[in-house]
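Please, does this match?
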Amino acid sequence: MATRQSVEEHLQMAEDTLRYAEDQFSLAKKQEHYNQTEYTKAQQLLETAVIDLGHVAHSGNPQQKEQIERMRLQLQRIQNEMIIYPHH
């Protein structure tokens, strides 16, 4: 079973990743030319966070699994939006 601290650390990292990705996505929508490198980095961080949360969820208790699943869904939402958005 995952320790409470371990789950909290993973959730905090995921939240930081979510915030960073949302910032990059917001910038991309505002600017015609934006930093593609940062946008791509945000997408990679999102993918890593989703995978990491999947691993942690297997060893969490029911409450932790619910928290992890909610965060995973938020990450996947922005991840999908970033993929679909027509960026050039």
Q: What stands out?
A: Residues 4-84 form one domain. Helices lie at 4-30, 36-57, 62-84. The mean pLDDT is 90. Residues 22 and 82 are 9 Å apart (CA to CA).
